[in-house]
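Sequence in, structure out. Go.
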Amino acid sequence: MKTLIIAEKNKAAEAIAEALGSVKIIESNKTVKVYKVLLKNIIIIPLRGHILEYKNSEKYKSWKNSNPREIITNKYAIEKAPKSYAFPFIKVLKKYAPQCDLCLIGTDADIEGCNIGLLDALPFVKQENNTINVKQLWLSSLDKKEILDKYNNPIAPKYTWAESGESRAIIDAIIGFSSSRQVTFILKPLLEKFNHKFTSIGRVQTCLLYLIYLRDKEIKDFIPEPFLTIEANLNYENNKFKAFHQLNPFNKDQFLNAEMIYNKIKDEKTAKVIDNSSKQIFLNPPSPLNTSKALILITKTLHISANLALKIMNDLYLDKIITYPRTDSDIYKTNFDHKSHILKFNNHSLYALFSKKLIANQLIYPTKGKKDAGDHPPITPIESLELENNKFKTKLHSKVYNILARHYLALFGERAIESRVYLKLSIKEEIFNSQLATLLTEGFLEIAPFLKRKYDSLIRITHDIFPVDKITLNKKETKPNPEYNDTTLLKLMEKNNLGTKSTRPIIIHILEKRALIHYFKKKYKITELGIFIIKMLEKIWLPFLKPEFTRMIEQLLEEIKIGKKQKEEVLEIFKKLFLELFDKLKNNQEKILTDISNYKITNISEKNSRSSLENITSCKCPFCNQNHMKLIEPRNKRKFLICLNDNCKEKYLSLPNKGSIYILKNSSCKLCGFNIFRINYRKNNKLLHYYLCPYCWNIGLKSKISGKGFCSNCETYKIEKNMCVEKKL
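Output:
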């Protein structure tokens, strides 16, 4: 029997091929490689994720000449079409399909992977070989042993999972295509003031933006209330700690009482112990990591974005270092071979001490979480690597691996033991309380120290009198909830069931990319444009903005996945509900336009947001000369300029990756007419800068002319007071 295996990415295809036997590349070009396992007569074709996508059909491609409402009502308004890079993949699928008797769908083993394999790729195979037998290669890792086991035990195709993913794509396409157009048409007068041609609306992204807006509004509207606290700084055998008055905090009406107490005791130098109790607290090891918990842990520990954390975990998976990182499960199957996984670390310079101890004490049964979703095991390291191993692409990959490996071993660790001491003290008959927490036994925390809280020094209370260093009366104010960071945004999305385990980081990135939120001092802030859009929609489209709407959609998609509902049934339910919402938006257009005419942009400044107006060039695109260009500064990726003209053929200009970039709006290059940019950077702890013309610089990159585009190298002109001027002879 000749077998065709479809993998989602080239690295996965290569790993599957090498696990099954001796491999030969039988077809190769810039886009796709086709692998053949010689002795077993197996052909493996990799994809590049989705090769098909939903687009507007020809009649509805024009925003001006079509009715957005019909995108909801007319089933022919959207169609599934190949992506721009898809044709080489389609060609090889159709070429090798007739030669095979069995097709194994080996795409990622989740809803998205099922959708890609069964509904993107398989139809092209079926076109050429309608009788081919179809099964699924359900892989949780690219470990050779698992690949062989799953190859010998394929499962029936999970068509309901694929249909759930397909329904999601259709629903989100209908919402995105129809509402983005309608909202853009309504808001166009004010969008132009932001130098935006359009805005995008999405089921999950707009709901998340609304929740960020609510937090932003809560912070802005928050009125701090003053309060007082009385604190005593104590010193016991060179261990310093604090005690707090039992009436803390004192509100405004109690200020006089607080001052009287403070004046009574402020010069006291001793505190008498009137009660001393303690108890031991046993801390259980953590539960296994699913995608959400892993992202929360990594973003919190390493202070990186969720999008980057997921990308790094995916790299580790493709490099056969960890299991599949997109999983909802935090419970292992009872037959999972933990002992062999733990034994792999017996020679590791950092982890051997822990793994040997676990094996010696027969600690090979992990803790349990709350959910076995039936998709994959929790995220697990499958290879023991030293942190300096060159298999890690970057130091960050090594750091993420270290967290995942230590966390996995900690699942089997012993309980940690805390000692909590509760003290009641009297200072001139005023009662103070203090609580101290110390770590008696590290247990699993020795393996995963990043899970530790902050502890006090170990104190054994043997005296009844403590020296008092100082007593303070502190005036404070109540504070609002903080702005969201990557970790708290992920928790917010999980709590409200927004997005999936793998799409949540992408959705945050989309909002940032589209200038609706921006990242500042490790916090996400909503931009003026984001505030404006939500304010306009909140008045008449609140049901769409609230999490309940997207939560309802997610429940319908889950019912398709488990076979309770059919795709067409769910789409009909959705269309009926969304059409009512859409008509409400459309019918309130005049009210919104009235509000727009009274709206003033008040919040555009470099300090506040690099995502409003100052990141737009004042000179037009040097390629099309029709529209301006926008500065895009994605975190941890190369910076670039993009033309705001959708029809511009060239569209992009690269930029230097290091340093802070500023567009000099009043200065243009005398050679090409495009804006001059100032790049600020640090060297030897000094702030320095240089000037650059991006267009000339890109020409230099293409023609390999070193130094071209740097204003300091220009023979004819120089920069003087941020202006490009002619050099004097």
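Check: Residues 159-191 form the longest helix (33 residues). The longest strand covers residues 270-283.
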